[in-house]
Amino acid sequence: MSPDTDRADPGKPGTSTDRDLHELAVKQAALGQVRGAAAVDPVNVPMIRHWLDAMGDTNPVYLDQGIAPPAMAQVWTMQGVRRAAGQHSPVDDVMSALDAVGFTGVVATNCEQVYHRYARLGERLTSAIRFDDLAGPKRTALGEGYFATWTITWHAESGEAVAEMMFRVLKFRPPPRAVPREPYPLRPAVNRDTAFFWDGVRQGELRVQSCADCGELRHPPGPICPHCRSANRAYRIAGGEGTVYSYVVHHHPPVPGREPPFVVAVVALPEGVRIVGGIVDCPPEAVGIGMAVVVTYRQMDDELVLPMWAPREP
Amino acid sequence: MRTLREDQVELGAVLPELSIELTPTVVVSTALATMDFTPVHHDVEGARAQGSADIFLNILTTMGLVERYVTDWTGPAAVIRRINVKLGVPAYSGDRLLFTGTVTSIASGEITVEVRGKVSLGDHATGTVALVLPARR
Amino acid sequence: MLRARAAIAGIGATDFSKDSGRSELRLAAEAVFAALDDAGLAPSEVDGMVTYTQDANQEIAVAREVGIGELSFFSRVEYGGGAACGTVAHAAMAVATGMADTVVCYRAFNERSGRRFGQPDARLGGQPSSQGLEMSWHVPYGLMTPAAWVAMFAQRYMHVYGATSEDFGRVAVAMRRHAATNPAAWFHGRPITLAEHQASRWIAEPLRLLDCCQESDGAVALVVTSAERARDLRRSAAVITAAAQGAGAGQMMMTSYYRDDMAGLPEMSVVGRRLWEMSGLTPADIQTAILYDHFTPFVLTQLEELGFCGRGEAAGYLQDGGIELDGRLPVNPHGGQLGEAYIHGMNGIAEAVRQIRGTSVNQVVGVANVLVTAGTGVPTSGLILSAP
C-alpha cells in the first residue's frame, strides 16, 4: 500500500499541502540573499589548468591574463568530497518540504549565468543564495511537479558581484514504478488440469472444481470426475470463508521465500472440500483448530498470486 | 592565434560543429575538475542504482563545454557576458555530444550565438551565449 | 498364498554414520557382501535384486560390483521409506512364484552427507508430473519438509484424541533408551529423558527436534530365498509369514489431508488387515514390533491401525514404558530410526531377523513373531517374520 493513500493529494492546486508549500516559498524568498562561506581556495592556476584540460579548452587567454574561465564561477565555492555542507540555505527548506510530500524526483531545467567580469587570480569568492520562486503544481512529462528557482551570486572580497546564476529545477513526484520483484522461489507446477485454479487466484477467485455432469466438488482438482467418470469439468467460486482443520507452525529448517515461524493450515471450506494455505495477519500462537478464516490473495512476485487465510471477525 | 573581431561576424553565421566523445574519462575528469563528486557522475553502479543508464555529464561541465564551443570559434579575445542554457536529456557516458551554433543577433556590440548540444537521446542543452568581440582595429 | 514360502536368510549392513566417506554404490556393495556372507551364499547364487525407486544404485551396478552374474528378476518399490518391507514382499513373491531363487534386497545412501530428505527442495513443485502437481498444493506455502507434513497430521491427532507432546516424547525416550545399549546405534550410550524431549526446540509445531529421526549414511541388505532352502544355510532364517503393501483411498505422498479425519493412517490399516489375514495371527501373537519411526506421532497411529490398541488409545498404551524393552510390546529394540540409524526402514527389518534368531543386543525373550512396518504417511508395506 502506498504511504500516500491516506493523505490529501499534495499535487492538487489549492489543497492545504499546496498552500503550505507556497507559503514556505514566499517565506524563504523574503529572506533575500543569504550569504554562504567563502571559497576554500582563491582563484588559482592549478584548478584553472585542471579545468581547461578536462574540458579540452585550449583558449590561452585565461592563463596568459591571470583570469578564470567565467563558467568556472560555481567551481570556486563547490563543496568537496568530505567538506561539510555550507551554511543552511533558504533553498534547503523548500526542497525538504517537497521531498516530504512525495516530490522526490529532481531534474535541473535551466541554468543562466551572467558574468559581470572575469574573476582574477588570488580573489577569494563568496556565494550568496536567494530563493526566487516556486511555481506549480504542473503536469510534466516526468510527472506532477513544482519548478523551484533560485539565484546564486558570487562576490569578490570587496563585495562586488562578479557573476550570478539563475538555477531552476523541477521537483516531481516519480510515477509509481513497477519495481520488478525477486521471483518467489516456491512455484506451483501448473498443467491443463489445474490452470483454472491459478487463473482464478489471479482474479481474486477461489475456484473449486466441480463436475459439469454430476456436480461433485473436488479439491485438489483432477482431469476426471472420480464419481461419474466425466471429463466435463467446471468450477464453483467458493465463498472465501473457511475453518482451520489442522495447522503447523514451521520453525526449521529455513524455507526459501518464507520467514519462520510461519503457519500453514488445512482449511475446511463450507462448500465441503479442504484446501491448504498459509495463515497470515495472525501471530502463530493465536492460530487454533476451529479458527474462522477468510481467504486473502497475496501477490508473491510479478506473476504468482497465492490464496492465503486471515482470521475472520466473528 | 586567430581571433575574431566584431566586424568579421555576420548575422546567421554558422559555427563549426564540435563533436565530443563522452568517454568515461571525459565524464569523470570533467566532474572532478568542476569539484562535483556526486556519484552519478563517476560511479556506474551508483548511477544505475538511481535508475540512470550510466554515469552522465554534470551541469557545470555542460556550461563549461558550451563556453569552450563558442570560444573555440571566437578565439581568445572574446569576452563572455552570459550563458543561458535549457537542460534536456542526460549526456551519458558512451554517447557523443554534438554542438552546433548560429549567430542570431548582433546588437549594441553584443553578439548572441544560439547553441545546441545534441546527444543520441535528443537535445542535451539548448541556449544562447552572449559575448563581446573586439571592434575593428 | 505367500505365507511362509520364503525366508530372510541373511542380513548385512555397513556402519551407520553421518559421513560415510564412501560412494553410495560402495555402501550398497559392502552391505550385500555382508548379507551374502551371513547367509553363507556366494554372489553367483543370486538371481534377483530389489531396491527402492529412490535408491541411486541400479541393480545391475550393484550386481557388477559384488560379482552377481545373471539376473532373472529385478524390481523397484515406490514411495520413499514405504518401500522397505515392500522389497522383501517383492522378493518373496519372486521366490514363491519361481521368478528367482535367491533375491537380494538393499538400500544404500549418504542421506546425511549427501542429499538430505529433511531439507526443503524448491524443485518439489516444479514439474507437472502427478507428484509435482500434488506437491504444488502445498510447497508454495512453505509446507515442504517431511517434519511439517507429518506435523499437520499430528496436530489433528492431538486435537481429536487429546494426545500431548509428552505422549510423542515417550516414543522418543523409548527409542533412545533402546539405542543406548546398542553399539551399532548412532545414539549408543546417549539416552534422553522426557524433560529433555520437552526442552528440545520446535521444528514444525507440534513436532520438536527430538520427535524427528536422525539422518544417516549407511546401507542394509537382506537375502531372501525359499523357506525350504533357508533351512540348509549357514544361519537360522526368519520365515516371511506375511508380507503386504498398502495404499489408502485418496492417498497422497505425505499430504493426504483431503480424506477422512486425518487422525489415522488408512494405508497402514490396509497393511495390518492383510498381515493378520495372511498370517492367521493376532496382535497378541507378536512379541516385538518394528514400527517405522521417522517421526514419533505416527508410532501412536500405527499401534492403533495395527490393532495393538483401540483408536485414540495409543497414548495410554505408551504410558509407563509400554513400548520399552520390558513393556507390554517392546517396539524397535534396536532403537529405531530415532536411535539407531535412518536407513529408510531397512535396518528395522534386519533387527527383526536378529530378534527371530535370538541374537539381538536387546533381545526380547521368547520371540516367535515380529511385525515390521515401513514408511508412514506414504503408501507403505509390512511384514510378519517368524521363527522357523
What does this protein structure show overall?
- The complex is a heterotrimer of chains A (314), B (137) and C (388).
- Chain A is α+β, with helices and mostly antiparallel strands.
- Helix content of chain A is 16%, strand content 34%.
- Chain A is elongated.
- Chain A starts with 15 loop residues before the first helix and ends with a strand.
- Chain B is built from three helices and five strands.
- Chain B is of the alpha+beta class.
- In chain B, a hairpin with a 2-residue loop joins strand 3 and strand 4 (110-119).
- Chain B is elongated.
- Chain C is of the alpha/beta class.
- Chain C has one domain: Thiolase/Chalcone synthase (Peroxisomal Thiolase, Chain A, domain 1, 3-Layer(aba) Sandwich), CATH 3.40.47.10.
- Chain C has helices at residues 24-39, 59-66, 84-97, 130-135, 146-161, 165-180, 194-199, 227-230, 266-279, 297-305, 314-318, 336-339, 346-357; strands at residues 6-13, 48-52, 73-77, 102-110, 202-205, 207-208, 217-226, 238-246, 288-290, 369-373, 380-386.
- In chain C, strands 3-2-4-7-1-8-11-10-9 form a nine-stranded mixed beta sheet. A two-stranded antiparallel sheet of chain C has the order 5-6.
- The model of chain C has no long low-confidence stretch (mean pLDDT 96).
- Chains in contact: A-B, A-C.
- Strand 9 (241-250) of chain A pairs antiparallel with strand 5 (202-205) of chain C.
List keywords for this structure.
heterotrimer, A: 314 residues, alpha+beta, Thiol Ester Dehydrase, Chain A, OB fold (Dihydrolipoamide Acetyltransferase, E2P), 2 domains, five-stranded antiparallel β-sheet, elongated, B: 137 residues, 3 helices, 5 strands, 23% helix
